[in-house]
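Field reference: "sequence" (input) and "structure" (output). Example, Gfo/Idh/MocA family oxidoreductase:
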Amino acid sequence: MAPVKLGLVGIGKIARDQHLPSLSRSDDFDLVAAASRNAGVEGVANFTSTGEMLEAMPDIAAVSLCMPPQARHQVAAEALAMGKHVMLEKPPGATLSEVEHLAGLAASHGVSLFASWHSREAPGVGPARDWLKGQRILKVTVTWKEDVRHWHPGQDWIFEAGGLGVFDPGINALSIVTKILPFPIWLNEAGLTFPQNRQAPIAADLGFAGPNGETVKAEFDFRQTGPQTWDIVVETDGGTLTLSMGGAKLAIDGEDRPLPPEAEYDGLYARFAALIAAGDSEVDLSPLHHVADAFLLGRREFTEAFHFDPPAGS
Ligand code: NAP
């Protein structure tokens, strides 16, 4: 099959770190254009809006959207209505109902919508899911702590309404948990810590229950300096499974399992191509459901103001 002509939208950190390198390796896609208000991609046609790009280049069949979630629905809806396949960065939107609207649009226009979860492509996730199928799961402990100043320098959108705050990385953990556990879980307690000058939390403590008394505890924090932690520990009657480094490492009872190298975004683009070829969509909203539940159920407390750069004079 000829490569699918693709336009990339929202040229910022993740577009440059991951999408461009993966697209340059992909046989499935031909990156022909980019749309971004303030940035461009060398060697392709550049536009400042998606509408302008799709009008000027009608042979573009797919778009991949890398802007923050608050800006995604309008652009995705426009592209789907023009009959384009759409891949969404995580989280797929700022609300559940806007993504459900997109799924309906994709179905009615006969195109593919892929709500991607890059952490599910981490090399340890598939083997962890397979191993857990044979075990009785007792307890899951998630620790996801990173330094927002290092990973999201100056990204004020993350602390604006709809930016999710610490759930921006935390939803990656939830995307793995919902992939590896063979049963549904539901939130039964949550504590959210908001900087007094921000609209989204900087830390969260969550508790979930499973159908047979299983417990899932998750601790997310954006204030971690020094070593960073992206760990999921699953205690079972057959041993303890540890996924660390965001799913890049897997150990059973402390013994490392051999895994292929990390290739999350290559995996996402291969999946997007397979969905297009099959005429399917993939829109699993379960990680975003848990985040929405945390905002519904969470006790709120406030902490000191957060600034990416220390205020002048401090
Ligand atoms: P970013 O660099 O701050 O934003 C990407 C680009 O989106 C911006 O450079 C901007 O380009 C465009 N944009 C369009 N509307 C915007 C708006 N309303 N506010 C701010 N920018 C807007 O963010 P990012 O780190 O790439 O993250 C984008 C998405 O990827 C998020 O959903 C995030 O969760 C996900 N993601 C990020 C990472 C990571 O390591 N950073 C990892 C995995 C996934 P123009 O101004 O040129 O339009």
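DSSP finds nine helices and 15 strands in the chain.
The first strand starts at residue 4 and ends at 9.
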